[in-house]
Amino acid sequence: MPYADLHAHTTRSDGSLELEAVPEAARRAGVDVVALTDHDRLQPFDEPVVEREGVTLINGIELRVETPSGERVDLLGYAVEPRPDLEGLAERIQTNRIERGRAIVDCVETRLGVDLGLTVTDGFGRPHVARAIDDHPDLEYDYEGAFEHLIGYGDPCFVSRDVPSFEQGLAALTGACRLVSLAHPLRYRDPEAALGLTADPDLEAVELYYPYVRDDIDRTIVKQAIDRNELLVTGGSDAHEHELGIAGLSRDEFEQLELTAK
């Protein structure tokens, strides 16, 4: 069981856990530290690290950015102390997320002839739509089917959203966070190109541990990037449901990040 789960989502974006329920979920999983990394949205507290019910919560964010080659990747910012650049960027992204969410919901409802009963607000994402489809008794699609046939990339109800450039996003995160990490590098279409971004000195870490990479996937290129660019290592469950601690860091690995240092 990991000591620290540094990638978790709450209902402030597309997770199922209420923020107030995170400490209990962490204790249930035997996890001492949780990073709250909601998509493109700041937490409702300004402290970089807080203690809640015996659990250390790291104020974090997961920010999607677009590289010069057109690849979209996710950056994880840790120990956030909100600054105007990041606050303004997050606000603009949330406005676009709402517009995009409404367009997706309208498309799905029209195509399927159903009322999903969704309210599109800050933090809304495609998983909200997929869950609503899965919960609807008259529809043929489950959660995965919704992504495979309706709202996934290239599907009839997919709507792209505006994201900041890699340079803009990294600069905003660097100005507000103690550490920035490249999330789940083996998920991207071109993992080697994504890992090439870690040559930037402001991108100091890479996510090595996460649950949806099969055991037989070769992580050599990630470890090579770690050695080549002297990167720190992060890891977490990328939790969108109620279970934490599926992946993460040992205590020694977490302490190397110095996220809780005063």
Shape: globular
| Mean pLDDT across all amino acids | 94
Largest sheet: 8 strands, mixed
The first-to-last residue Cα distance is 27 Å
The portion of residues forming beta strands comes to: 15-25%
What percent of the residues sit in helical stretches (DSSP H or I)? 25-40%
CATH superfamily of the largest domain: Metal-dependent hydrolases
Estimated radius of gyration:
18 Å
Total helical elements: 8
Molecular structure report:
The protein is an alpha/beta fold and 262 residues long. The protein has 2 domains: 4-82 and 165-255, Alpha-Beta Barrel (TIM Barrel); 90-151, no CATH class. The chain has helices spanning 22-29, 84-112, 126-135, 143-151, 166-176, 191-196, 220-229, 251-255; strands at residues 4-8, 33-36, 49-52, 55-66, 72-78, 179-182, 205-209, 232-235. Strands 1, 2, 3, 4, 5, 6, 7 and 8 form an 8-stranded mixed β-sheet that branches. Helix 1 (22-29) links the parallel strand 1 and strand 2. Helix 3 (126-135) crosses helix 4 (143-151).
Q: What topology emerges from the helices and strands here?
A:
Blueprint: E1 4-8, H1 22-29, E2 33-36, E3 49-52, E4 55-66, E5 72-78, H2 84-112, H3 126-135, H4 143-151, H5 166-176, E6 179-182, H6 191-196, E7 205-209, H7 220-229, E8 232-235, H8 251-255
Parallel strand pairs: 1-2, 2-4, 6-7, 7-8
Antiparallel strand pairs: 3-4, 4-5, 5-6
